[in-house]
């Protein structure tokens, strides 16, 4: 009589085979891997120096090129596509190969399947309170939320998205609430939908350069300064090859589409960005430090409160505006945070115009997030029904 029944022996053999395959996979080159080293060696180096560098980086080389680490995500994607199954974590492909971000509940937010009413109301309260305090000081606020790609590139979304039909979205709710409070807003979704494709980068979460210009012009009109617009025919150049986007890099997959973006021919009227001691509160990421660009000795002061959608381009687009300086600050103290910027900095800077442009997926105010120095509208720290 054996110690193990027959089915257990089969199961044990299968488990042993699986572990053996996993161990063996580290010796089999991945067919989709590039078989390249992350470190570069110069041709003139001695062989001993090259060998030392290769030896010290052999672990990373095996990680990149063995174990089917590039093949498995591709197989998973193809299986889901064959089953017509939505894959929303953390990214998924549309009908034309465009990649869409799936985290932060972005697909459901754009479709209207997710409407966090209390969080949106908290956002509306925040902007309304800011306007109540700043309007007597001569500051105008314009709210323009850069939309998710899913809110604009509708024809590029996967087929399963066609079944998502809901009457309203958080974006709609926010614009209606701000309008009721007298805050100037501009809906960037129809602005971008009216433009020809492509509107967003194919392998990245961000809009392309042309969409950025069109959105900026719409904001200038909403702010009451149509003369501050820039001419797209002069500023927006031809489509050119661009670096692989953040989604494709995160997926560690071979590119199925070539990334392209429009060349921007921006006028060099503004100075180089400088730090301003008034804008003391800094974002946690070094790339999102508060900066100021000087334009003229006299004129209006503009403050853009945004994120990566506006950081590099919008502060440089005021060549046609009679402005003294344009400042940019992140609308959050954290890269993925919400509504926790420093209102004390805003008051100290004393801008004539504030452009609030936090991207759609990050605009609702969660939990206890609230600007530093802005009076709270509730007795308790966190109102009921606010947690996401």
TrEMBL record:
MF annotations from Gene Ontology: transferase activity
Keyword Iron-sulfur: no
Residues annotated as domain AlgX/AlgJ SGNH hydrolase-like: 93-256
Record-linked Pfam families: ALGX
GO process terms (BP): alginic acid biosynthetic process
Entry's localization field: Periplasm
Main location: periplasm
Keywords recorded for this protein, A-Z: Alginate biosynthesis, Periplasm, Signal, Transferase
Keyword Transferase in record: yes
Pathway it works in: Glycan biosynthesis; alginate biosynthesis
InterPro entries: ALGX/ALGJ_SGNH-like
Protein's UniProt name: AlgX/AlgJ SGNH hydrolase-like domain-containing protein
GO cellular component, one term: periplasmic space
